[in-house]
């Protein structure tokens, strides 16, 4: 959200020595007249040069490179709205195939009726899954003549901010398991005390945003299965596989994190992360159509035909779905396995180069997810914020941040290794990081930090 600058008269002054144009162009008001397409292109293109380089962006999990054939398909399908299922029936068929392939990859039971949809990202997928669980819980409580006033959900502080967003927007109490120094995920023992008959679902994460680790999904599953059999209380487990959903099925196919766990009723994944498509796509899959109350599915007919729809936004681009289909055909299971194997080995190579640095400690060495996370071994041993700035001077985008409650004293530097991050780049980043550390250390010798005075009591 932005505060609107409706009173601003600020101008662009893009003087192109008279070739394109040399008049001022308002920044915050619709210009009275237009300009040639070439001139508009040049202006926008030049402004965006100030953005970081997506190939050097290790902050984000989101795909920043696809093959030229994918770019061509994206261009060809830009004009198609995914919601217009009657007008673009083949796009809809592709959508259905893509969601089915993902359901199979996540071991949705073939003898049930798994259901799912593409979304704009994992946030929307999580909102849709949790809305369904909230509604199912309400219906069960109403049928038993019980109050539906105070739904809650249980999650770790390691969960992405979109979980808190769901809780606040849709009025569900978020019961959050805090982190601790040395424990940045959750397991059954932390979840159990927070559960009650008003818990609509438990969130478990496969590849956390903060440290790239995995919640103990097996133990949470066992806990929920026991509660269901002992107390007849069915609490669904939703797995947030935004980052891990396209890694683990290829790197550790025997790891049981998905619908093979009996209490997992829904899963989300970000296709725009390790599904390897450009930003704008996630997926939600339900174990069974009974997990999605049919009153939440809208049937619209004014675009022609009957179009069942479960989404927050109505219109959306179709090209990310097409691109996911392209990648599935292009790579197959084998291709994804090869890419995942390579990014993991590049992540491990990076971790190896960074593992013995004085004042820094690895908390994720890239062995399960292609994410390398370093922490300062003492809170003030290394200024990670400054280190991140110094890396930015070389073009690298490597974020430094503190971990969530109650591990805020731990600051970390996180590097996500993606497909287009080569072994050469591993070497270059490692050299630059070592160089930046030397600069930091020289600065602190030249300008030593004064010990902080204790505040007077
Ligand atoms: C674990 C996790 N869940 C959810 C999200 C939100 O995903 P999206 O950006 O696709 O909405 C993220 C984003 O990084 C994430 O890491």
3D architecture notes:
The protein is α/β, with parallel strands linked by helices and about 450 residues long. The chain has three domains: about 10-50, no CATH class; about 70-325, Aspartate Aminotransferase, domain 2 (3-Layer(aba) Sandwich); about 340-445, Aspartate Aminotransferase, domain 1, CATH 3.90.1150.160. The chain is about 35% helix and about 15% strand. The chain is built from eleven helices and 15 strands. The protein has helices at about 35-50, 70-75, 90-105, 120-145, 160-170, 190, 215-230, 250, 320-355, 385-395, 425-445, and strands spanning about 10, 25, 115-120, 150-155, 175, 200-205, 235-240, 265-270, 280-285, 300, 305-310, 360-365, 370-375, 400, 410-415. It has a seven-stranded mixed beta sheet with strand order 3-9-8-7-6-4-5, with helices on both faces. A hairpin with a 6-residue loop joins β10 (about 300) and β11 (about 305-310). It is globular and about 70 Å long. The two termini are about 40 Å apart. Mean pLDDT is about 90; it is low at about 450-455. The structure holds pyridoxal-5'-phosphate. Pyridoxal-5'-phosphate (PLP) binds near residues 61, 160 and 243.
């Amino acid at each position: 959200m932005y505060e609107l600058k409706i009173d601003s008269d600020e101008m662009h002054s893009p003087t192109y020595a008279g070739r394109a144009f040399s008049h001022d162009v308002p920044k915050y008001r619709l210009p009275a007249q237009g300009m040639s397409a070439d001139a508009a292109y040049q202006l926008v293109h030049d402004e965006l040069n100030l953005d970081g380089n997506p190939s050097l962006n290790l902050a984000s999990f989101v795909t920043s490179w696809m093959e030229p054939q994918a770019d061509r398909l994206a261009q060809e399908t830009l004009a198609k709205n995914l919601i217009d299922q009657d007008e673009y029936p083949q796009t809809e068929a592709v959508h259905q195939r893509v969601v089915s392939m993902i359901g199979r990859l996540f071991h949705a039971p073939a003898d049930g009726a798994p259901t799912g949809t593409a979304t704009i990202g994992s946030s929307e997928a999580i909102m849709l899954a949790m809305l369904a669980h909230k509604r199912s819980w309400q219906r069960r409580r109403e049928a038993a003549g019980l109050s539906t006033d105070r739904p809650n959900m249980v999650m770790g502080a390691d969960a992405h901010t979109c979980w808190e967003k769901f809780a606040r927007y849709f009025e569900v109490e978020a019961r959050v398991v805090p982190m601790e120094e040395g424990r940045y995920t959750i397991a059954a023992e932390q979840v159990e005390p927070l559960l009650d008959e008003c818990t609509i679902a438990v969130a478990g994460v496969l590849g956390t945003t903060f440290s790239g680790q995995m919640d103990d999904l097996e133990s949470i599953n066992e806990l929920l299965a026991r509660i269901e059999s002992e107390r007849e209380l069915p609490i669904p487990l939703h797995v947030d596989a935004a980052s891990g959903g396209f890694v683990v099925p290829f790197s550790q196919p025997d790891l049981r994190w998905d619908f093979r766990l009996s209490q997992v009723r829904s899963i989300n994944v970000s296709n725009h992360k390790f599904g390897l498509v450009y930003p704008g796509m996630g997926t939600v899959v339900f174990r069974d159509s009974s997990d999605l109350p049919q009153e939440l599915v809208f049937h619209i007919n004014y675009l022609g035909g009957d179009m069942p729809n479960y989404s927050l936004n109505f219109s959306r681009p179709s090209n990310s779905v097409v691109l996911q289909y392209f990648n599935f055909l292009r790579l197959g299971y084998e291709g994804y396995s090869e890419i995942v194997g390579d990014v993991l080995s590049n992540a491990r190579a990076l971790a190896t180069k960074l593992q013995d640095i004085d004042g820094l400690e690895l908390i994720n060495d890239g062995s399960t997810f292609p994410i390398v996370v370093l922490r300062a071994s003492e809170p003030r041993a290394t200024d990670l914020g400054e280190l991140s700035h110094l890396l930015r001077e070389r073009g690298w985008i490597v974020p430094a941040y503190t971990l969530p409650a109650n591990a805020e004293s731990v600051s970390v530097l996180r590097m996500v290794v993606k497909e287009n991050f080569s072994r050469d780049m591993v070497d270059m980043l490692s050299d630059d990081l070592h160089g930046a550390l030397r600069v930091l250390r020289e600065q602190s010798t030249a300008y030593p930090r004064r010990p902080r005075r204790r505040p007077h009591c």
